[in-house]
Design goal:
The structure holds 2 protein chains of 2 kinds. By secondary structure, chain A is α+β, with helices and mostly antiparallel strands. Chain A contains 2 helices and 7 strands, in the order βββααββββ. Chain A is globular. Chain B is mainly β. In chain B, the strands form 7 sheets. Chain B has a 4-stranded antiparallel beta sheet, with no helix packed on it. Chain B has a 4-stranded antiparallel beta sheet with strand order 7-8-9-10. Classes of the chains: A alpha+beta, B mainly beta. Chains A and B meet through helix 2 of A and loops of B.
């Protein structure tokens, strides 16, 4: 079983003990939503930073799968498989 | 970094667009600051809870990126705790998500664990564990008017709470929706807006829909409230059964905040702003106006305030402490914060050049963080 690695922005790393990435075991393809469930299972505060209580991805949180932002794909239903690069990056917002 | 508070001191919490600062003082003139706490997150609400033999600072924190949350500190900001699952979380069946915590309101001494919150989307919440977990008030959430409540410029907010535990009486003010009252501890709610004008609606005196900016309860007369409306300053003596204008004598009837004296009936403060076209202090001169006769007359108080000020003072960017005489505090969107140790007769500058001040709360504490 291969892993999917999710890179975290530095501002979120204190929520996971300073780790710069988290990994999930992938047995075939999974959705981004399932991937988030897997990596945040032990980190509920991180989970709330990324998605609200309805499960929606927060407006200014961007997730890239193989360099494509998931909102341009199938959103949280986007399929991701072992070997693909997943990045979580905060978008440009504020002033 | 925390604040060091010594015997008989005061704490002033300043929530801004980009973090919170804490100030302590022994005389309410010289202040020591710590912060920023929660840098880059806006702080629209703060509650300082001095019950239970400790000082708990509850903070509504909202990051544009990472969303809203509630954190608390029992050591004057030296450390912060955030409940892992979130203190305020909409139940799944509501299909709603918390956007912003507008108000954190510790209840009376007789109910030391109870803390209320007013939130966006418009909702009222109650905690019985000191603000660590809140439960949605279903009576208001399921109110048939809810779909007709609107959003002020700041968002659809339940921003003011008045609670009387002896009578199970709770009042909430919302923008836009107006004032609602419950007399069964939040089980059911009715609009209480008669007499408050809504000059932005075709029907200017609707049952509900007013843009009430802030309400405050009089210290001595049951059922007496003061309201700073979106145009109009009002008083009611019967819990909003009817409201009467008390704007005569003020340089403008627009503004965001209203404060009531914690012990003396009849005393309240407003900070008027020029209405619609300007949204600045009248003539660019910042001043607090105080009434000591429940709105019958007003005195302009500006000693120590700047000659020119073109920033507004937002609805929660003002607060009082419970000392004698009462301390009065407010901050501007220009990041200046002022304190008065004599109920507004004179002001000193606490801090300048902060981000926009959204929220100010103050309390009297002792060196152990206990209520004096």
């Amino acid at each position: 079983m291969a892993d999917i690695t999710v890179m975290l922005p530095s501002v979120l790393q204190p929520l996971v003990g300073g780790q710069s990435y988290l990994t999930a075991s992938a047995d075939g393809a999974m959705t981004v939503a399932q991937l988030l469930d897997a990596i945040t299972g032990n980190y509920p505060v991180l989970a709330r930073r990324l998605r609200d209580e309805t499960g929606a991805l927060r407006r200014y949180v961007n997730i890239y799968v193989s360099r494509d932002e998931v909102r341009r794909l199938d959103g949280l239903d986007t399929k991701v498989a072992a070997g693909q690069e997943v990045l979580i990056i905060q978008s440009v917002a504020g002033g | 970094m925390g604040c060091m508070a010594t015997a008989e001191s005061y704490i002033l919490a300043i929530g801004t667009k980009k973090g919170m600062w804490l100030a302590t003082s022994r005389d309410r003139k010289e202040w020591s600051l710590s912060g920023p706490h929660f840098l880059l997150s806006e702080i629209p609400s703060i509650g300082i809870d001095t019950r239970n033999g400790r000082t708990r600072i509850l903070v509504g924190v909202r990051s544009e990126h990472w969303g809203p949350t509630v954190a608390h500190s029992d050591d004057l900001g030296a450390s912060w705790t955030e409940p892992e699952q979130g203190a305020i979380k909409f139940p799944e069946d509501t299909e709603a998500a918390l956007e912003r915590v507008w108000q954190i309101y510790p209840d009376a001494e007789s109910r030391p664990g109870v803390v209320w919150a007013g939130c966006e989307p418009i909702s009222v919440w109650k905690s019985t564990d000191g603000g660590e977990h809140f439960e949605l008030n279903r009576g208001l959430w399921d109110h048939p008017h809810r779909t007709e409540w609107g959003a002020g410029f700041g968002g659809p907010a339940a921003h003011s709470l008045v609670v009387d535990p002896e009578k199970d009486r709770v009042l909430v003010a919302m923008s836009t929706g107006g004032v609602y009252r419950s007399t069964d501890a939040g089980g059911s709610w009715e609009p209480r807006n008669r007499g408050i004008q809504a000059d932005f609606l075709p029907d200017q005196y609707p049952e509900f829909g007013q843009c009430v900016h802030k309400i405050a309860a009089d210290a001595g007369v049951e059922g007496r409230l003061y309201a700073q409306n979106h145009g109009g300053v009002y008083r009611t003596d019967n819990d909003g059964g009817n409201w009467e204008s008390i704007a005569e004598g003020l340089p403008a009837d627009f503004g965001f905040t209203v404060l009531a004296h914690p012990r003396r009936s009849g005393t309240a403060w407003v900070i008027p702003m020029k209405a619609e076209s300007n949204r600045i202090p009248p003539e660019g001169k910042l001043a607090v106006h105080r009434t000591d006769d429940a709105g019958g007359s007003w005195r302009c108080l500006d000693a120590g305030l700047p000659q020119h000020e073109y920033n507004t003072v937002l609805r929660d960017a003002a607060g009082v402490d419970t000392a004698e005489p009462v301390g009065l505090y407010f901050g501007t969107r220009g990041g200046f914060v002022y304190a008065s140790a004599d109920e507004g007769e004179s002001f000193t500058e606490v801090v300048s050049h902060l981000p926009d001040v959204l929220c100010v709360r103050a309390a009297v504490i002792n060196g152990d963080g206990d209520q004096r």
